[in-house]
Specification:
- It is built from twelve helices and 16 strands.
- The chain is elongated.
- By secondary structure, it is an alpha/beta fold.
- It folds into two domains: 238 residues, P-loop containing nucleotide triphosphate hydrolases (Rossmann fold), CATH 3.40.50.300; 58 residues, Alpha-Beta Plaits (2-Layer Sandwich).
- The strands form four sheets. It has a six-stranded mixed β-sheet with strand order 8-9-10-5-11-12, with helices on both faces. Strands 4-3-6-7 form a four-stranded antiparallel β-sheet, covered by helices on one side.
- It binds adenosine-5'-triphosphate.
- The site of adenosine-5'-triphosphate (ATP) has 16 residues, from strand 4 and helix 1.
- One of its GO terms (molecular function) is ATP binding.
- InterPro entries: AAA+_ATPase, ABC_transporter-like_ATP-bd, ABC_transporter-like_CS, P-loop_NTPase.
- This is ABC-2 type transport system ATP-binding protein.
- Belongs to the ABC transporter superfamily.
- It comes from Geodermatophilus sabuli.
Length: 345
């Protein structure tokens, strides 16, 4: 969190807000405590507790069916928990004085295909009691200003995702809850989305919770991650913490003219060793520094030494292994390509 910014407010209500933050935004912390939800025999969410901090991006990660959407729906008051609470600075969604200004969401999309993007947004403005001028504000924010007059039915998937984000931003909310917003985007769209999400949190001070089933999608976007499997919390922490925990998870590639002796030395140290061709050895359960040190101590010449991957993906798979649920979900945003709604209306 960047709380090194300006001090604003009167003497009585002074508060420090992050540099570049939209001054009127109230920092809001989302707290999920013991959330549990059953659908018949399926426990979709199981005693889940985590926190989403202001001015940062929290990645909500888990395999298909892990309970991410159900959790987000409970946070947004769209689904009633069997037990537990989700609160915004201590208040449940239902008790928020101004929900549309507190939280916006991208969940499931439904656009009237014949309506223009701008008119779609204006309908939401009227329903939420917001000035219709907000429609143009948010179109600019998401880069759709030139396309606002076109039929939403003719939008590409990337444009629909932008319109979904625009809808979530209508109330200029402190909190954004985004369910798999990168689904179906092309690489350019994903790149834009990453930057935009970081901007919303780091420059504007918003609290952002964004779900994905891919760690690679979150690795360069999120500050913190909450990992769930089969409805339960598997890991919560910063990306840096996760990264340091992942050391040794990824394979190390090492090239040497003495592969046989190298394999003996590393194997004797209990490491996994897979000799390949061309003097290459793949080592698991270690780090480049460790392999380098062991080779040095044994006086073995190395020509190349590098991590095959950061190990994060391997750690994520291990943490969530066997927890994928294949029960059909009611909404498949990948195939419908539709998403969104400011739940906060
Ligand atoms: N309305 C519902 N009725 C019955 N079961 C449901 C319902 N909604 C979700 N489930 C089940 O609850 C579990 C959690 O689903 P959920 O959609 O929350 O997971 P998810 O992590 O969002 O998955 P995905 O990444 O596939 O969207 C799954 O087993 C799912 O089939």
């Amino acid at each position: 969190m960047r709380l090194d910014g300006r001090t604003v407010g009167t003497r009585h209500e002074e508060r420090v807000i992050p540099t570049g933050t939209t001054a009127h935004l109230e920092p809001v912390r989302v707290e999920v405590r013991g959330l549990t939800k059953d659908f018949g025999p399926v426990r979709a969410v199981d005693d889940l507790t985590f926190t989403v901090e202001p001015a940062s991006v929290t990645g909500f990660l888990g395999p298909n069916g892990a309970g991410k959407t159900t959790t987000m729906r409970m946070v947004l008051g769209l689904e009633r928990p069997d037990s537990g609470t989700a609160t915004f600075n201590g208040a449940t969604y239902a008790s928020l004085a101004a929900p549309v200004r507190t939280v916006g969401a991208v969940l499931e999309t439904a656009f009237h295909p014949a309506r223009s993007g701008r008119n779609h947004l204006r309908v939401y403005c009227r329903a939420a009691g917001l000035p219709v001028s907000r429609a143009d504000d948010v179109l600019v924010q998401v880069g759709l200003a030139d396309a606002g007059g076109r039929r939403a039915g003719g939008y590409s998937l990337g444009m629909r995702q932008r319109l979904a984000l625009a809808t979530a931003l209508l109330g200029d909310p402190s909190v954004l809850v985004l369910d798999e917003p990168a689904n179906g985007l092309d690489p350019e769209g994903i790149q834009w989305l990453r930057g935009f999400i970081r901007h919303l949190a780091h420059d504007q001070g918003r609290t952002v919770l964004v779900s994905s089933h891919l760690l690679s999608e979150m690795e360069h976007t999120a500050d913190r991650v909450v990992i769930v499997g089969a409805g339960r919390l598997v890991r919560e922490g910063s990306i840096a913490e996760l990264r340091s925990g992942a050391q040794g998870e990824g394979a190390v590639l090492v090239r040497s003219p003495e592969t046989t002796r190298l394999a003996e030395v590393l194997g004797a140290a209990g490491l996994g060793v897979r000799p390949g061709g061309d003097g290459l050895v793949t080592v698991t359960g270690s780090t480049p520094a460790d392999v380098g040190a062991r080779a040095f101590q044994a006086g073995i010449e190395l020509h190349e030494l590098r991590a095959e991957s950061s190990g994060l993906e391997e750690l994520y798979f291990r943490l969530t292994a066997g927890q994928e649920q294949y029960a059909a979900s009611t909404t498949d945003t990948t195939t419908t390509g539709t998403t969104t709604q400011g739940a906060a209306r």
